[in-house]
C-alpha cells in the first residue's frame, strides 16, 4: 500500500478501538439475575455467539427485524440469545423491563475499555490525516467514546443507525467518502471484522488495514503509515 495515496482514515469502533471489559454473556447473566432470571455466563456466551453469527445487521436487506432501529434490533437479538440459552421470561413485560436495564448497561462507564494503543495511535495519526468513525454501533457510541476520551479525535462519527445502512453495505462507505470529500481509493479503513470491515471496504473501493487477535495490533498501523 502506497502511503502517498492515503488522504484520510476511517476507523471501526467495537473490536478495533474499544473492547468490552468482560464477555458479553457475563454481563447478560448478571443483569438477568437482578430480574430473577438465572442463566450461566457460559451458556449465554455460547448462545450469543451462535445468534450473532446468524443475525444480519439491522440496516441490511437480509434483516428480518420489522421497522429496524438501533434498539429494536438489539431487543430482538437479546431475546433470541435467552431463548437459545433456554432462559425463559414468564411475561413479555418482564423481558421488556430487563432489556431496558441491559441496554442502559452497555452505555454505562466501565462497560467498555479503550484499546491499549488507541489514544497514542489516534494522537499520532490525526497529526497527518483527517480521521472519522465508521461503525455499525448505535447512538450510544458517542457517549462511550467521550467517556473514554476518544471522541474528540474524529472529524465525523458515522453510525449505521443514522445513515440507514450497515457495513458491509457500500452506502455507508460512500457516505464516508462524501463527508471527507475524497475519492474512495484515497481512504484507508481500519477494522477487525472480515466481512463488514475488510470485504466491505474493498468492495467500496477503500483500502483496508486489518486489526485483531490473529491480525495486526492497532499500534502496527503507525508502522504501516510510516509514522512510527
Question: What can you tell me about this protein's structure?
Answer:
The strands form two sheets. This protein has a five-stranded parallel β-sheet. Strands 2-3 form a two-stranded antiparallel ribbon. 44% of the residues lie in helices and 12% in strands. Helix 9 links the parallel strand 6 (187-191) and strand 7 (207-210). The model has no long low-confidence stretch (mean pLDDT 92). The radius of gyration is 18 Å and the shape is elongated. By secondary structure, the protein is of the alpha/beta class. The two termini are 16 Å apart. Helix 2 (41-54) packs across helix 3. It contains ten helices and seven strands. It has two domains: 3-20 and 113-224, Rossmann fold, CATH 3.40.50.1000; 24-105, Haloacid dehalogenase-like hydrolase (DNA polymerase, domain 1, Orthogonal Bundle), CATH 1.10.150.720.
Poorly predicted runs are: none
Q: How many helical elements? A: 10
- In total, the number of domains comes to 2
**Major sheet: arrangement of strands:** 5-4-1-6-7
Amino acid at each position: 500500500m502506497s502511503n502517498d495515496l492515503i488522504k484520510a482514515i476511517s476507523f471501526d469502533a467495537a473490536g478495533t478501538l474499544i473492547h468490552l471489559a468482560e464477555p458479553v454473556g457475563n454481563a447478560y447473566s448478571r443483569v438477568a439475575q437482578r430480574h430473577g432470571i438465572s442463566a450461566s455466563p457460559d451458556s449465554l456466551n455460547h448462545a450469543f455467539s451462535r445468534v450473532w453469527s446468524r443475525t444480519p445487521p439491522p440496516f441490511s436487506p437480509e434483516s428480518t427485524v420489522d421497522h429496524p432501529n438501533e434498539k429494536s434490533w438489539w431487543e430482538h437479538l437479546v431475546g433470541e440469545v435467552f431463548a437459545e440459552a433456554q432462559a425463559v421470561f414468564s411475561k413479555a413485560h418482564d423481558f421488556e423491563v430487563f432489556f431496558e436495564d441491559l441496554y442502559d448497561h452497555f452505555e454505562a462507564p466501565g462497560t467498555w475499555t479503550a484499546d491499549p494503543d488507541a489514544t497514542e495511535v489516534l494522537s499520532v495519526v490525526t497529526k497527518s490525516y483527517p480521521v472519522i468513525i465508521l461503525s455499525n454501533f448505535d447512538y450510544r457510541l458517542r457517549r462511550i467514546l467521550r467517556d473514554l476520551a476518544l471522541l474528540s479525535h474524529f472529524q465525523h462519527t458515522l453510525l449505521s443507525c443514522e445513515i440507514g445502512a450497515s457495513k458491509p453495505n457500500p452506502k455507508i462507505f460512500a457516505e464516508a467518502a462524501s463527508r471527507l470529500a475524497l475519492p474512495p481509493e484515497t481512504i484507508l479503513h481500519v477494522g477487525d471484522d472480515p466481512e463488514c470491515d475488510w470485504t466491505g471496504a474493498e468492495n467500496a473501493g477503500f483500502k483496508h488495514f486489518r486489526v485483531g487477535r490473529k491480525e495486526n495490533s492497532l499500534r502496527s498501523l503507525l508502522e504501516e503509515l510510516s509514522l512510527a
